[in-house]
Specification:
The chain is α/β, with parallel strands linked by helices. The protein has nine helices and seven strands. The protein has one domain: Rossmann fold. The chain is 34% helix and 15% strand. The strands form two sheets. A five-stranded parallel β-sheet has the order 1-7-6-2-3, with helices on both faces. Helix 9 links the parallel strand 6 and strand 7.
Length: 242
């Protein structure tokens, strides 16, 4: 950041002090702009044991095989999804603000904390990140795509990662929020296609990026579109699961 930008930020902070998005207390002089160290520790991370397909956390001790309820009947077209946090409490509120209250600037701090998880970092290493696209109408309404912002921010932390608009959304769909598992899959079926301006290579490992994984229906539909275009190595990652 330039000296002028530092001065500008200092003056703005003096007039409009920044508060931590978790604690709502004024931020100290830290590397992150909107998430204090104490606030970051309040975010509910996902640790092992977790589902090796969708990243859903298993509570308690596992004995023998256990089928993840989030993967029932999905048979996803992606290999594995890894999620950094549980989508509840502070995380749910922050993601809601990013998506619906025009606060995409909160992505950078959330990603910075997410990549502190070694498994999350290993999962992304060396991959081409593909954000779940918005339909043109929705993008015009919102003015930004939160999944794209996440992918861009992840690349700043992950040397060797790149991102591209390899997918486009060709069919507008209602929000998935109030739909059940079956309705979600039907809602996004054939909604995505490979971007004709982007080359899909069978030798590249692609990781589809989104904010939240709930049933996996959207990630599955995106992976199907990439496979139809010739991709062979496809995984997924989201900031949260739930």
């Amino acid at each position: 950041m330039s000296l002028l930008a530092d001065l500008d930020r200092g003056l703005l902070d003096l007039v409009f002090p920044r508060d931590c998005m978790v604690t709502q207390l004024p931020m100290d002089d830290q590397a992150r702009l909107y998430l204090s160290d104490f606030g970051a520790r309040q975010l509910e991370r996902i640790y092992d044991p977790r589902c090796h397909t969708c990243g859903h956390p298993f509570d308690g001790i596992l004995e023998g095989d256990r089928t993840c309820p989030h993967c029932l009947d999905l048979n996803p077209a992606f290999g594995r999804a890894v999620c950094a946090f549980r989508a509840r409490g502070h995380i749910r509120q922050i993601i809601h603000e990013i998506k619906y209250t025009r606060c995409p600037f909160l992505v950078a701090d959330l990603v910075a904390v997410a990549v502190e998880d070694p498994l999350f970092r290993r999962h992304l290493a060396g991959a081409q990140l593909i954000p779940v696209p918005l339909h043109a109408d929705k993008l015009s309404e919102r003015s930004y795509n939160q999944a794209e912002r996440i992918a861009q921010s992840l690349c700043t932390h992950m040397p060797g990662c790149s991102w591209s608009h390899a997918l486009i959304k060709v069919k507008p769909t209602p929000s998935q929020t109030l739909l059940n598992r079956t309705e979600r899959r039907r809602n996004v079926a054939n909604a995505f296609e490979a971007n004709p301006t982007t080359h899909i290579s069978p030798n590249v490992r692609y990781v589809i990026i989104d904010d939240v994984l709930t049933t996996g229906a959207t990630l599955h539909a995106c992976a199907q579109a990439l496979r139809l275009a010739g991709a062979l190595h496809i995984d997924a990652a989201t900031l949260a699961h739930g």
